[in-house]
């Protein structure tokens, strides 16, 4: 009986040791699929999803709960690539939708100095170019004709009575001349009037500026009021590229930076310009502001109304940068994966800054020399969630 009792105890101890050995084996090795990492089995076999052979993965004693280990096959199939983060230069770039418009600093209008009927317009089409000093319109005006007659009368009186009376006819003549000048009659026209002694019923007025006609507010036969606009003109040697910018983007705009205006209608032509104006008033409905970039219009190749893009770049500065695809961003923040050893990876939260082309600035969370996953970061994130059953950033403070 005693021998039987000893035999039972020995068998019990042996079974216990065997179970422990099995438990240890199960905890040290598991089997997963490199294509479907969510599949985790305790014994070899085939993946129930893709039917590939399961890959054995051995857990190292130093495996930490906030890290994940991959097999060589998983790293190869997942295209996990790393790079060492280092200091580089980065500058912000902002692309805004714009359209070309007249440079309002180089627009002008020609108004009638007197009331009368417009007998002739020398330019009748929008877009006609008018040079400074060119005849613009001819007007019939009773007031102007009376002023001409007053001037001729003063000339005649000065010639006839200058030596016979104490009246200062020179002053009377100058007063009549000043009235004509005030109403826009030129010196050469007054001299011609004095020479011929004949007053034409119509008076021709000349352009005081050069430019392209942008609007015509009157037609032949219409009556022009004193001060009424005859034509409006614009000098197209420079144009404005007017771009819309959201309020949230204003802080990123460097008013001293160089602006590049891209013109898709002219084979993507690019012209350098400068920011001339930022509207201080924001539209409360759209939260959109307006900036204007002045650009030269060499050869008048550009036309108001053309579509354009305004590219604004800030100054380059030294900073840690990574490819944009290396950063995983969600509502909780931004994270990257770093290699802690040969096959071990760990997620770290970072603070990002400027983006330029395919690079992004890392303001904090990493130091120069960290080995960062630049390809396959999203696969690592998914692998961690499947294997650990939790978000890799759940234990971080935000």
Automatic annotation (TrEMBL):
Domain of life (superkingdom): Bacteria
Domain CusB-like three alpha-helical bundle: 143-200
GO cellular component terms listed in the entry, alphabetical order: membrane; outer membrane-bounded periplasmic space
Ranges of residues in domain CusB-like beta-barrel: 238-315
GO terms of biological process kind: copper ion export; plasma membrane copper ion transport
Signal peptide from the UniProt entry: none
Domain (CusB-like barrel-sandwich hybrid): residue spans on this chain: 109-233
Keywords tagged on the record: Transport
UniProt GO MF annotations: transition metal ion binding; transmembrane transporter activity
Gene3D superfamilies: 2.40.30.170, 2.40.420.20
Domain called Multidrug resistance protein MdtA-like C-terminal permuted SH3: residue spans: 320-377
Start and end residues of each Heavy metal binding domain: 30-57
InterPro entries (UniProt xref): 3HB_CusB, Beta-barrel_RND_2, BSH_CusB, HMBD, MdtA-like_C, MFP_Cation_Efflux, RND_pump_MFP
Family listed: Belongs to the membrane fusion protein (MFP) (TC 8.A.1) family.
Listed PANTHER family: CATION EFFLUX SYSTEM PROTEIN CUSB
UniProt protein name: Efflux RND transporter periplasmic adaptor subunit
Species name: Lacibacter sediminis
Lineage: Bacteria, Pseudomonadati, Bacteroidota, Chitinophagia, Chitinophagales
